[in-house]
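Appendix B, record 7
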Amino acid sequence: MNKNLIQKAEKFVENECKKPTSKYGQGVLVEHFIPMIKHSKNLCRRLGGDMEVVLLAAWLHDIGSIVYGRIDHHITSVKVAKKFLAENNYDKEKTKLVLKCIKHHRQSTNYKRETLEEKIIADADAICNFDMIQGSFYATLVTEKLSPIDAAKSVKKKLENKWQKLHFPESKKIIKPKYQAAMLLLDYPSKL
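Structure tokens (predicted):
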């Protein structure tokens, strides 16, 4: 495993988050990237797969959102990651695998995930939503300017969709308590 390149990817993401132009600031490292690495490693250990590809994809999967913003960040992340991997003379075949993982990580897209690594990255990213539900509320309340009730409905729907699209029983096992708690807390009567 190329630990040096994985460390370079970590430092690269960290430096991009620290820039004044960063769309999300430094908080996203602790709020999303660190949990993403944890869940990616955990799933890769349990299920197999190429740990190097998984870790590089995990570090670089959202880099486009840091540099360019959230819209189409799976595409812009591929662009930034491709350049980073080429500058570090990374193996061309493994580069293709990393880029597929990044492009296909968003569950809101209808890409078919073919490799184990793609599925691991998509599931790890979805699991992170259950670790930081506050981020979803921030997006709905502040960015989308929804009312608290509509924000709760939106977050609940998003989490239900994430749960349904998980690839592995192991992924569901990891987040089942958080999923059940979220569904209980976000259950709001439709009529009073």
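Remarks on this record: The chain has ten helices and no strands. The mean pLDDT is 89.
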